[in-house]
Amino acid sequence: MGVPLTWLLRRQxxxxxxxxxxxxxxxxxxxxxxxxxxxxxPWLGGGELVLTTGLRLPGSDExxxxxxxxxxxxxxxxxxxxVGLSHARVPDALVEAAEAAGLPLLxxxxxxPFVAVTKAVMERLAEQQYEGVVQASRLQPRMxxxxxxxxxxxxVRELAVSTATxxxxxxxxxxxxxxxxxGAGIPGPELLARLGPADQAAAxxxxxxxxxxxxxxxxxxxxxxxxxxLVTDRPLTPVDHLLLGHAASLIALEAEKPSxxxxxxxxxxxxxxxxxxxxxLPAAAAVDHLTxxxxxxxxxxxxxxxxxxxxRRALERAGEELDRRGLPLFGVVHEGSAVVxxxxxxxxxxxxLAGGAPAHxxxxxWAGLSDVQDPGSGPVALRExxxxxxxxxxxxxxxxxxxxxxxxQTLATSxxxxxxxxxxxxTRLGPLSAYDTRQGTELVASLRAFLEHNGQWxxxxxxxxxxxxxxxxxxxxxxxxxxxxxxxxxVRAELLLALSVWQExx
Length: 506
Known about the structure:
Layout (H helix, E strand, L loop, with lengths): L2 E2 H6 L6 E4 L7 E2 L1 E4 L13 E5 L8 H13 L4 E5 L9 H10 L3 E4 L5 H50 L2 E5 L5 E5 L8 H7 L7 E6 L2 E10 L2 E10 L5 H40 L5 H10 L8 E7 L3 H14 L6 E4 L2 E7 L3 H8 L11 E4 L8 H18 L5 E2 L6 H4 L2 H25 L3 H10 L4 H8 L3 H15 L6 H13 L5
Helix pairs in contact: 2-3, 4-6, 10-13, 12-16, 13-14, 13-15, 14-15
């Protein structure tokens, strides 16, 4: 935003006179600069009104024409020549060259000091900045009202109209959620690439032959909802940037509403799930709460455990997938794993959650799914899912492992037998787990892999991603710690049964 030359010429107290370059009067002055160098170009950036008395103006007409041509090439807005000091009138060569270059040439009379011209330009620039602030203060409430009544689309429309630009709101994948004017095209991939990644660049501006593109990240805290992109064929003003930032904030708040509601509901559902899983919630109360939350319980419930990676990120992905399927999220972090409650008949949903992260970003994850249980049997379902996930990890299985597929699961479902097995597990595996804790080893996992692969060294070591010699060394250490012989079929069977119910201490 600069000072129009036409405005400057209308200031009668300055008594400026246009001598050449009438066709360039649509230019705007960004700064007024008094300079008496024979070649001022190295000190210019473009957009200036260059003021000179010609004190060091070259003597020859051709050199004077070069002086003007160099100024025009540097992008100055106009040349102001003060007469009455070193020159009684503006040299004809300057007038001719300015007319040929289309550069406005102003005559500054002797009574008008350069400082008066500079002051007029600076004061007008300050006025324009203030007018911009006033304009923005009038437009921002309109934009806020638009957000309250029409959401993101209304904000985008108000921004586009207020700035006379094209505006589009894009999500992470570049899919448009709102745009204006109607039918406004999405910026091409090459333009968006110049702006940088949507999840990294908070704000960016790119200027090229195809126009100016500005982007503002739409985010609240760590959560990024996309970016707001503005496209125009003119330079952006401070008001444009201010309104773009305001619009991005409004859209972020609008997008955050359902997210915050889901977060709050997720906290309540997580507290409920913890009570269900530790058995402190009566079955009737569990059914009532799940039914009111829109969670189907007619076919019973299952528990899904996701081991590996970031459990909280796994819960976020699970919430997004369940939301797409019309289901509420009941999820918690338990023993470093993500635990999710699912309807009993939704095995396909469990498979979708087990493989829900993009392949290029997903850490290795092992998923275990319990049998169908009634809502009052949360502790049983949790143990089953934990055991299934542990088996998946020990086997190195990337797919979902169900408790029903585990050998010995029929015995483990009987409360009396399970109690006996848990006592056996504590006696036989407790010392091994304690050794792992003290020494930082993985003997319990190694024992599981060895037994579940029927003592086959190659298969078991591959499941653990270690060399077979390493596994042999671990098995020898296991026999030493337990004081037993793994060559015995009875010992192997006993330990395998113990592993079927074993849970690492929390």
